[in-house]
Structure to design on (516 residues):
């Protein structure tokens, strides 16, 4: 008897197409898995059984009518709760939007639905995507399925945890400074941030408009490739002026040869303060695995990366302050009762509707955009952004992709990091990619010797060359699958042999979600 946590998205879609099980059976298995597991993980803010079963019935009806099925027909997925889906609340894990009902569906979500996916629910996140732990959610923290005393990372921690706990094979997240790639590393799943503009942001509540990008989580690189094909299908979005035409060719690059290709290594990153020995060893082993697959390792220099975190924490809060100014207690969102003046209505609604981290970033953004300060900090940050982007462009004249850590350490415990500035350093390896706008992907490499928690590497590609991430990521995945003891169990793949992709976290394997 198969279970939802043993199957990849590709295997589920193939099984439904072949009549091994129906989309309704898969949806019911996913919902049963959520019922059995989410009390401990707390990955979801809202579960949507009615929407899931209605979508599954449409898939089964199409199959019964002999219609061709879309590539992800019947595959359950989770949606980060900053993405609108009609019929659900979109809260951004904030009291400010606790009762907000989605009036429409975000383009990225609609494209997943068009590809046949089944929406299981809205995933928890750091409030308005401000955080690296999912502990800043106004409703509850999310626990890492590999160790529930630890965080899943953030801000898309609920999405990553839903995949790692075997509740859904794929999920959508958003990444402003590492919010897909860092939780993917902590939870031992594949997470991809495409190039800025590759996926429409229409219908996604904005944090930093020049930094945000939607992307998928999956248990295998192939699943992420299939999700990317769905997200870019249909071309650019007329409702998002930053969205670009991107060909849906990601799945074609799964298993592609990387012989003769060049992989960049940044020596300074491998010696950075805060990088733990087990993560360093894992990334070094990943480099050797790519070399064994025929790639050439080349040292590259990104001389202005030291400025990345400083630049990000100027640009990000400034854009957040601008984007969140709309939540004024008047038009929608939390409204403070009993106010007699407009000024009181606005100030008290914002004071009581936002959490501490949301207030901190907005206050910082207001300061940075104030008269006499703007030129000193914001303008300087934009100059640093240009220099960092140029550094990456020069590096890609020498290499096809760059390999680096995804996070400096494995998942930390809830409450272990209380200093906000120390928390910001969790994204030290991911932030520069958002500043430059390139695509990046986290690939899990097994579990660390000291921590027993997932370790991962990050691949970074030039802008709009994201298909390279799939080719190199699948090469790494094959190397991990062939490594004895990398995972306690894996995703079966009879066609290729061995194990591909991270397993469901051991504590949750086989707990609900069986398929006949």
């Amino acid at each position: 008897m198969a279970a939802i946590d043993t199957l990849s998205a590709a295997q589920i879609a193939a099984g439904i197409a072949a009549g091994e099980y129906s989309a309704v059976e898969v949806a019911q298995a996913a919902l049963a898995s959520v019922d059995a597991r989410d009390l401990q993980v707390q990955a979801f803010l809202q579960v949507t059984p009615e929407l899931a079963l209605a979508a599954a019935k449409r898939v089964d009806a199409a199959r019964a009518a002999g219609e061709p099925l879309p590539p992800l027909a019947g595959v359950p997925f989770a949606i980060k709760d900053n993405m609108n889906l009609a019929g659900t609340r979109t809260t951004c894990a904030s009291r400010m939007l606790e009762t907000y009902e989605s009036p429409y569906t975000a383009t990225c979500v609609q494209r997943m639905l068009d590809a046949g996916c089944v929406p299981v629910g809205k995933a928890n996140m750091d409030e308005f995507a401000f955080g690296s732990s999912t502990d800043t959610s106004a409703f509850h923290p999310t626990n890492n399925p590999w160790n529930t005393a630890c965080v899943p990372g953030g801000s898309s921690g609920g999405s990553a945890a839903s995949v790692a706990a075997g509740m859904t094979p794929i999920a959508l997240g958003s990444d402003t400074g590492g919010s897909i790639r860092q939780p993917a590393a902590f939870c031992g799943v594949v997470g991809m941030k495409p190039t800025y503009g590759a996926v429409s942001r229409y219908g996604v509540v904005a944090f930093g408009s020049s930094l945000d990008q939607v992307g998928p989580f999956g248990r295998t690189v192939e699943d992420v490739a299939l999700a990317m094909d769905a997200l870019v299908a249909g071309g650019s979005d007329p409702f998002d002026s930053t969205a670009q035409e991107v060909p849906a060719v990601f799945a074609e690059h799964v298993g592609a040869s990387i012989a003769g290709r060049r992989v960049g290594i940044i020596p300074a990153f491998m010696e950075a303060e805060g990088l733990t020995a087990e993560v360093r060893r894992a990334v070094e082993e990943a480099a050797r695995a790519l070399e064994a697959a025929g790639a050439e390792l080349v040292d590259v220099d990104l001389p202005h990366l030291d400025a990345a975190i400083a630049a990000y924490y100027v640009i990000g809060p400034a854009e957040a302050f601008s984007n969140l100014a709309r939540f004024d207690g008047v038009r929608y969102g939390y409204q403070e009762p009993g106010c007699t003046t407009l000024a009181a209505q606005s100030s008290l609604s914002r004071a009581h509707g936002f959490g501490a981290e949301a207030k901190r970033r907005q206050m910082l953004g207001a300061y940075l955009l104030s008269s006499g300060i703007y030129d000193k900090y914001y303008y300087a940050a934009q100059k640093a952004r240009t220099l960092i982007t140029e550094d990456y462009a020069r590096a890609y004249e020498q290499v096809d992709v760059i390999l680096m850590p995804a996070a400096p350490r494995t998942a930390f415990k809830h409450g272990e990091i209380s200093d906000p500035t120390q928390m910001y350093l969790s994204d030290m390896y991911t932030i520069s990619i958002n500043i430059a706008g390139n695509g990046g992907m986290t690939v899990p490499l097994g579990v660390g010797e000291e921590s027993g928690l997932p370790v991962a590497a990050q691949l970074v590609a030039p802008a709009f060359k994201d298909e390279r991430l799939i080719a190199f990521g699948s090469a790494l995945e094959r190397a991990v699958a062939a490594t004895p003891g990398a995972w306690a169990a894996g995703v079966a793949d009879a066609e290729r042999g061995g194990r591909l992709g991270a397993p469901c976290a051991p504590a949750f394997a086989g707990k609900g979600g069986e398929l006949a």
Observations:
- The first helix runs from residue 9 to 17.
- The chain is about 35% helix and 15% strand.
- Confidence is low (pLDDT under 50) at residues 488-499.
- The radius of gyration is 21 Å.
